[in-house]
């Protein structure tokens, strides 16, 4: 496995692999890899001949008061995990390589980026779509793998790819959780031991929602009341949003039907975490 | 030569050509082809194995009070010209094929798009970069050819390609003029016979500027005074802008040096025309 920092060098390698008929799999990450990332890399390795993992803490997707500076970084550890997953290349560019002086171009998806995380993090998705468009042009992958913990991100990127006629398949992959249910996230390492325990309330409250829906509840308001009640058992949690939306449009729904996303964002200590569940093929009543 | 209206069909054709090692040349146009376009198609045919000409009057680059509805269209005539130039494919999608219901993604280059035509046509370049990004993803050309009559457009697209790491060479081509000096434009057909004569003042005033610079003048203000004086000899011309800018940054300059663009936009009757000259390698004095 090679670590490449230069865009041109990576492009040359990819061009050669493609000339040899190789299919390229791509896992874009901000590093500090965990088992969630590992599952993406493994899937990419199974489905493609050649796998690129990018590790780039992308400044344009962080707001000015967000955690860019304290976002965890550990390239050496990442190397080992990427290698175990079967990656062929780690692409680890500098900020200057990605955004040289005078950089001025942005890709923006409207509407679904204005909801959920887009509403609480203005400009966040513009940073995401811009860097991913760049990475797609650099890596030119056949398939790109994204975790569904960032469900809205997946939907935004699928929209970008479709609207801009990009030739890449965006492949959403299930959330990987710790044994106790906490959704894996690079940010978890910044939780204090106490906050780490508190954070469990996110997955617990989503499990509660799932349970209520399984029992037949379809009224979003009723479900939200129960979720909020569960979250309230941890009074130090500062809720950013709890939303029940259609997974296609990200519009709030009153009655659950079809493919539904229940998503939570909350601050626990200094760390903002997100979690969600996707409920598929919901009949309007059971 | 084939006319293709479906994005998927074109992608399939291009994929096959590329698998056979063919280099793809691309000439994006809004149709109503003239000798300027022909020169681009001919150059593309010389430099590539396979040439795609797109004909698409792109609604997103027209403002609400602009001439989208009266922009001239004549596919039959365009076919003949493209064929003479050596094109292999005309790509002629519908608006719905390019912007299906729910379309929401835009590519935007900041800063240089806020000047000249960007200042007088808000949103224009956002429409241009968006449609060209889409077309580049659909056609995946090795080389794309653009006329320098739209000098700012060329600069904006070069910036987009560089910033987004796109793998295409944007090739600027010289303005083609009528025998009397009028820069070729599809919009010229909308000029009345009287306005057609009046329109000559644009190229004449630029020729005047060139003459003054050749005589040693380097002060932008002095040159602008002379250009305006020449333009004023046709009092029906409504000037949108006359600018002397650095060709790299599109910033106004006081003293001409290096690579300089002198650009004019003006309304003649109901038709907005643009013209420019690029002065290369100007020493600061002669």
Description:
The structure is a homodimer of 286-residue chains. Chain A is globular, with a radius of gyration of 19 Å. In chain A, strands 1-4-3-2-6-7 form a 6-stranded parallel β-sheet, with helices on both faces. Chain A has a 3-stranded antiparallel β-sheet with strand order 8-9-10. Chain A has 2 domains: 2-173, HUPs (Rossmann fold, 3-Layer(aba) Sandwich), CATH 3.40.50; 186-278, Pantoate--beta-alanine Ligase, Chain: A,domain 2 (2-Layer Sandwich), CATH 3.30.1300.10. Chain A has 286 residues and is α/β, with parallel strands linked by helices. In chain A, 38% of the residues lie in helices and 23% in strands. In chain A, strand 9 and strand 10 (271-282) form a beta hairpin. The first copy, chain A, has helices spanning 7-19, 35-47, 75-85, 95-98, 116-120, 124-139, 151-163, 193-198, 200-214, 220-231, and strands spanning 2-4, 24-29, 50-55, 89-91, 105-109, 143-147, 169-173, 238-246, 258-268, 271-282. Chains A and B meet through strand 5, helix 6 and helix 7 of A and strand 5, helix 6 and helix 7 of B. Chains A, B: Its EC number is 6.3.2.1. Chains A, B: Pathway: Cofactor biosynthesis; (R)-pantothenate biosynthesis; (R)-pantothenate from (R)-pantoate and beta-alanine: step 1/1. Chains A, B: Keywords: ATP-binding, Cytoplasm, Ligase, Nucleotide-binding, Pantothenate biosynthesis.
């Amino acid at each position: 496995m090679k670590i490449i920092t230069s865009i041109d060098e990576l492009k040359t390698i990819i061009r050669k692999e493609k000339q040899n008929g190789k299919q390229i799999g791509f896992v874009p990450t901000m590093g500090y890899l965990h088992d969630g990332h590992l599952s993406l890399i493994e899937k990419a390795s199974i489905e493609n001949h050649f796998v690129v993992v990018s590790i780039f803490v992308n400044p344009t997707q962080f707001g000015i008061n967000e955690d860019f500076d304290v976002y965890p970084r550990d390239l050496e550890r990442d190397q080992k995990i990427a290698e175990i997953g079967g990656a062929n290349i780690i692409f680890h560019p500098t900020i200057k390589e990605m955004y040289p002086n005078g950089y001025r171009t942005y890709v923006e998806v409207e509407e679904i980026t204005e909801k959920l995380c887009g509403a609480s993090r203005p400009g966040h998705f513009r940073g995401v779509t811009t860097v991913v468009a760049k990475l797609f042009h650099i890596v030119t992958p056949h398939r790109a793998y994204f975790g569904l913990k960032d469900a809205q991100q997946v939907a935004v990127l699928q929209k970008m790819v479709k609207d801009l006629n990009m030739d890449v398949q965006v492949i959403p992959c299930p959330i990987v959780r710790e044994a106790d249910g906490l959704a894996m996230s690079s940010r978890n390492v910044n939780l204090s031991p106490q906050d780490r325990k508190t954070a469990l309330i996110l997955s617990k409250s989503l499990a509660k929602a799932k349970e209520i829906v399984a029992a037949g509840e379809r009224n979003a308001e009723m479900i939200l009341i129960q979720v909020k009640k569960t979250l309230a058992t941890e009074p130090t949690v500062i809720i950013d949003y709890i939303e029940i939306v259609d997974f296609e449009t990200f519009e709030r729904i009153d009655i659950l039907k079809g493919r539904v996303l229940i998503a939570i964002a909350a601050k626990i200590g200094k760390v903002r975490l997100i979690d969600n569940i996707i409920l598929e093929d919901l009949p309007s009543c059971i």
